[in-house]
Design brief:
two-stranded antiparallel ribbon, five-stranded parallel beta sheet, alpha/beta, elongated
Length: 212
């Protein structure tokens, strides 16, 4: 699941540059743009992968700090970095009081903005991964696997080849291949890597369940 960073800015050029910089800096992150607060609100409601927001304070339908309050009311879990041409200590204090995680002035180097986003994004990605892991565990729990398929799944997660799996369980290589092929289809994954990822996320999520 790719995370999303939302750039809220109506400038014709700046958001395109920011999106390219964000996607180049952060692997597995997609940057999207909203040109107004109304568009940003819609994306807040429709985009579950939203991990961080870069917000300009001057938009067609809102000016000043009201945009921070409006977005925080919808998704207080999504950190907001204010990216504005305005800068003063009172403005920084007011933005922080409304819940902005940081404020970066547009006349500063773009790497400063990326450096401010980095720790916020890392924390948010961890939260999204944990949530996704819980969902994976629930989905995995609804998939009925035979004892042999459970063995195949664990062996794949351990990085074993088909030959090693065949030797472990004393079955033929062709039978092993058939079991693995059926397992991948049952899990709904494309390859062994996805199957292994699903296995460990499901196990981790179960370990955090109450009573585990």
């Amino acid at each position: 699941m790719n995370a999303v960073v939302l750039v809220v800015d109506d400038h014709p050029v700046v958001p395109l540059a920011l999106r390219s910089l964000i996607e180049a800096r952060f692997s597995g992150v997609r940057a999207l743009q909203a040109s107004s607060l109304r568009q940003a609100k819609a994306m807040y409601q429709d985009e579950p992968r939203l991990a961080a927001t870069v917000l300009d304070l001057r938009l067609p339908d809102v000016a000043g700090l009201e945009g921070i309050s409006a977005l925080r009311a919808l998704r207080p879990d999504v950190p907001i970095v204010v990216f504005t041409g305005l800068d003063s200590e009172p403005l920084r204090r007011s933005a922080a009081a409304l819940g902005a995680a940081a404020l970066v002035c547009k006349n500063e180097n773009a790497t400063i903005l990326l450096d401010r986003i980095a720790p916020l994004l890392a924390e948010r990605l961890d939260a999204l991964a944990e949530s996704a892991g819980t969902a994976v565990a629930r989905n995995a729990d609804t998939i009925e696997l035979s004892p042999r398929q459970q063995q195949m799944w664990q062996s794949i997660a351990e990085g074993m080849s088909n030959g090693e799996i065949a030797e472990r369980y004393r079955i033929s290589l062709n039978t092993t291949k058939a079991h693995v092929r059926e397992l991948l289809q049952r899990l709904g994954v494309r390859n062994r890597t996805e199957a292994a990822t699903m296995y460990y996320r499901a196990r981790q999520a179960r370990a955090h369940e109450p009573g585990a």
